[in-house]
């Protein structure tokens, strides 16, 4: 079994209005020194042993569904998990 952690973030060239709003809210609450806030998505997938090429499968999932590759970047980590 495999545990896959997927991180999706807006590309640096894309404005992040949600991040800007969070940065403003943090300043309102007295938090100083924050230069920038970027908001992203985090997903965990559990794949069973029947998936032959985990990297190819995850890449395809990210590019077809999990990330909008026009404006978002993604990265992922694969961890082999022993079933209990």
Structure description:
With 84 residues, the protein is an alpha+beta fold. It has a domain at 2-14 and 40-80: Phosphoribosylformylglycinamidine synthase subunit PurS (Mth169, Chain: A). It contains 2 helices and 3 strands, in the order βαβαβ. A 3-stranded antiparallel beta sheet has the order 2-1-3, covered by helices on one side. The longest helix is centred in the C-terminal third of the chain and has 13 residues, at 54-66. The chain is elongated, with a radius of gyration of 17 Å. It starts with a strand and ends with a strand.
In CATH terms, the superfamily of the domain at 2-14 and 40-80 is: Phosphoribosylformylglycinamidine synthase subunit PurS
Give the SSE string.
EHEHE
Classify the helix fraction into a percent range: 25-40%
- End-to-end Cα distance, whole Å, is 10 Å
DSSP strand content:
25-35%
CATH architecture of the domain at 2-14 and 40-80: 2-Layer Sandwich
User: C-alpha Rg, in Å?
Assistant: 17 Å
Q: What structural class do helix, strand and pairing data support?
A: alpha+beta
Sheet with most strands: strand arrangement: 2-1-3
């Amino acid at each position: 079994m495999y545990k896959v952690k997927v991180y999706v973030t807006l590309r640096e060239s894309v404005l992040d209005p949600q991040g800007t709003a969070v940065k403003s809210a943090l300043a309102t609450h007295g938090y100083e020194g924050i230069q920038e806030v970027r908001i992203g998505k985090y997903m965990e997938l559990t794949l069973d042993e029947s998936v032959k090429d985990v990297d190819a499968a995850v890449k395809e999932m990210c590019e077809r569904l999990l990330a909008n590759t026009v404006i978002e970047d993604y990265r992922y980590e694969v961890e082999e998990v022993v079933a209990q």
